[in-house]
Each structure stands twice: as structure tokens, then as C-alpha cells.
């Protein structure tokens, strides 16, 4: 099968993941027991993908989304990055971009961990979005090229 099929399949998976993320609090907050059960199942299903700390999450109808802000935007960024890859066949960024952002991300997480700031959701959103975009571009374009290039030598 063609590479584009797998990229589209991955994109659909990421979009479904983000849809489930937003649906979980709506379903749990429903008055119907079956919807509440399904919503609880979504939280359980997404638990391995995120720490799900409510104080680090967006809320819908008074309930936290199934993924924290950073994870939500990482997965949205991955979906956006896939769209960018599909629209532009060859999308390569200099390695310095990846290294620079990795340093920024480590500093952002580290400064929060030591208490220099607390739960700044806009910064978490931006770092998550850019992380997701760069991660998917790196995994889809750079890693295969490096692996196949080494295999041909």
C-alpha cells in the first residue's frame, strides 16, 4: 500500500483521539447512564496517553478533558504536522530546529517542575502544539531517510 494511505490512516486516528478527548467530559456529564459509562471508558482508554491531572486540563461543562492541555496540543500538533506533510511531499527542517525546540521544551518543563511558574496553560498549549508538529515531521521524514540511507551504505 502507498505511504499516503498510512498517513491518512494515522491522521484519522489522531483526529478520533482528539474527538474522544473532547467527548469524554460531555458524556460523563450526561444524565444518561450509558453515556456516562462510555465517557468513563474514554478516560480509562486515554489514561496511558496522559497523566490526566485536572489542574492541567481544559474543562468542558465543569469536567476535565481526558487529556491535559499539553497532551491535547501534542496530538493536535501531530495531526497538523501530518496535514503539512501530505500537502508538501518533502518537508525537511534543519536539525538545529529540532534541537533548539527540544532545549526549549526541557527548559519549559524544568522551570515548571522547580516552581518558577505554575501551570501556564497558554505556554503548555504552544509547547505541545509545536512539539507535536516537529515530532511527526521528524518521525515521518527524517527517521526513515536516516534509516534507509544507512541501510544503503
From TrEMBL:
The chain crosses the membrane at residues 63-85, 97-116, 122-143. It comes from the Bacteria. Keywords: Membrane, Transmembrane, Transmembrane helix. InterPro entries: DUF2085_TM. It holds the Pfam family DUF2085. This is DUF2085 domain-containing protein. It comes from Caldithrix abyssi DSM 13497.
